[in-house]
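job 3f2a | input accepted
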Amino acid sequence: MTIQENVSLRPFNTFGFEAKARYFVEVQTPDELRNLLLDPRWKEVPKQILGGGSNVLLTQDVEALVIRIGIRGLEIIREDNEYLWLKAGAGESWHNLVLHCVQNGYAGLENLSLIPGTVGAAPMQNIGAYGVEIKDVFEELEAVEMHTADLRCFDTAACSFGYRDSVFKRALKGKYIIVSVTFRLRKQPVFHVSYGDIQKTLADMNVQVPSIEAISEAVIRIRQSKLPDPAVIGNAGSFFKNPEIPQAQYEALRERFPELPGYATAPDTIKVPAGWLIEKAGWKGYREGAVGVHARQALVLVHHGGGTGQQIRDLAEKIQRSIEEKFGIRLSPEVNFL
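job 3f2a | predicted structure (338 res):
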């Protein structure tokens, strides 16, 4: 475990922004992480955790010890006739985990194919797509308390999952570092194909009988058709959350915008697609120097090269003001700002 100084974080964020970490280290095991946190030389130094860098906006140099989580490993820890429980290291690639499950017939994660980032970041965000969220397949996670280096187990209730949310983004923000996540996966799949374009894409693929392999491939095709590859153009995927608004507000907006989509998520609560709002306000395909809004998906802010994280932040704030003025809705970012 080597601690480096003044390290460029450009390779470690999918926007591709240049920023430097005052100190930088990658940990490979939970014990390495715990020893680092207990080391008196680093005890009082501010710390920042980094996974895949796919959900972070670097707006400045990071005057802290940046700890990149490189903890790997996949292990079936128990199984019964219906389920198996798969434990994954927090540093594993999320998409590689999904592919591993699909290839081995472990059902439950196939709708979450091609989401960037690492396993450890997934429960923090309660990532979700096409009708499935982490909380639907989650069993427990292990996390290290940053101050004491104690290892603690969190079950579903303790994580307090919400829409793209968990206790680790609220009361326990910055207090724990996730080192492993255990998923409860089905041996006999229950398919989720009613959300988005999955059924249409399966039909285009000439799939008569669904399978987790086919659903994963369909989701990959849909995401590739809508979302830019960070290797080609810098981005962090969906930049804003889909807002949830009172049904009365939704119905009032429908009088002005009859085509406004919405999905009931709770009694008297409607989720509205943020991408639709942004596109309707005229931002789709907008470019401002080195940054802009993707031409095919208005929910994605992009970095064309040579720009800064602050420029993306400024653009995001302009979009927020515009949506609030036009629709009376305040968009919240999914991306974490540093």
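job 3f2a | The longest strand covers residues 176-186.
job 3f2a | closed
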